[in-house]
Write a structure and sequence with these properties.
This protein is α+β, with helices and mostly antiparallel strands. It has helices at about 5-15, 35, 40-50, 90-100, 190-200, 240, and strands spanning about 55-60, 80, 110-115, 115, 145, 150-160, 165-170, 170-175, 180-185, 210-215, 225, 245-250, 265, 270.
């Protein structure tokens, strides 16, 4: 994964988060008499009593629909704060409290932290890990609610590719694989799944090539099945029972077996620009000789720091 812009934003967020001292550790003088060693600071007692309950927990509700992916493109139409919660409470107790407050069925309140599934038995005190990526690096934790499933979740892995890269003013901002999650039914057709994918990625459904990892026995690795018949349902392939995930690839050829030129190229007649409607970012073309190249060279550093006094030494 390479994401210069994302790394910069993460670094700024960490600097802002830890700009103040987070913890204070005071050591007592080892020469104190035993009775003094047991004395407790009155300020610590007051802080412990006031901090018996956690600060309000921010909970976001994922938009209801077939797209259940949690990322920076996800939509959260509703955000609430849950107050009066103890760190010793479980996820189940938090779900029950939200259900009462929002007058919702508890089945529609399924709590996640980023892509980390939180079981009902997990305590809120366990929802912290000083390790970014799990969605548990904040305290109080920032939680997400997903509605109940109408069918089953299917996971689609899209590899990192130029088609999905993000550029800004000639510089790469994001180049990474994508993990998408959809709520589908056994009667959902392969063609309908491709249209769901096309709503999240710029590649049109006609260019999608899907391969399912099917595992029927735990003692076996399973097999890979190409979903090449769009009229078939996911149930016909047994994906509702045995699917581990689906791997995505872009088809490079049309139905006649001819290569599809969806990018700029050179030939004997010269340079050919990208065809109309091309979704591949133009800045991602590495050839700097082309006439439509961005004046900003992405290989050059953003800034150069030099010591002007070096010549005087």
């Amino acid at each position: 994964m390479f994401s210069q812009g994302a790394d910069d934003e993460a670094q700024k967020a960490l600097l802002q988060k830890f700009k103040d001292t987070q913890h204070f550790l005071n050591y007592k003088d080892p020469k104190l008499p035993p009775e003094k060693m047991l004395d407790v600071d009155e300020k610590q007692l007051i802080a412990a009593k006031e901090a018996e309950l956690m600060k309000p927990i921010r909970v976001r509700f994922l938009q209801d629909g077939p797209d259940r992916t949690i990322d920076n493109k996800a939509k959260f139409p509703k955000v609430i704060e849950v107050a009066g919660v103890s760190a010793q409470e479980s996820i189940l107790q938090l779900r029950q409290k939200i259900a009462r407050t929002e007058s919702m069925p508890i089945e529609d309140i399924n709590i996640f932290a980023a892509e980390t599934v939180l079981d009902d038995r997990v305590q809120l005190s366990e929802c912290y890990a000083d390790w970014m990526g799990f969605g548990l690096e904040d305290w109080p934790p920032k939680l997400i609610v997903k509605p109940r499933l109408k069918g089953f979740e299917i996971h689609v892995n899209v590899p990192a590719m130029r088609d999905m890269s993000e550029w800004d003013k000639g510089r790469l901002q994001n180049y990474q694989s994508t993990h998408l999650v959809f709520d589908v039914l056994p009667t959902t057709r392969v063609k309908e799944l491709k249209f769901l994918l096309a709503s999240r990625i710029p590649i049109p459904a006609s260019r999608h090539k899907l391969t399912a990892h099917v595992r029927k026995h735990l003692a076996e690795y399973g097999e890979f099945v190409e979903l090449d018949e769009e009229s078939k349902t996911l149930g016909d392939y047994g994906l509702d029972k045995y699917c581990v995930c689906i791997h995505f690839a872009k088809s490079e050829f049309d139905e006649n077996g001819d290569y599809i030129f969806d990018d700029a190229y050179w030939d004997d007649s010269g340079y050919h620009q990208q065809p109309p409607g091309a979704w591949i970012p133009e800045d991602s073309i590495s050839d700097r000789r082309r006439p439509d190249a961005n004046p900003i060279d992405p290989n050059q550093p953003l800034s150069i720091v030099s010591d002007r006094r070096a010549a005087e030494r």
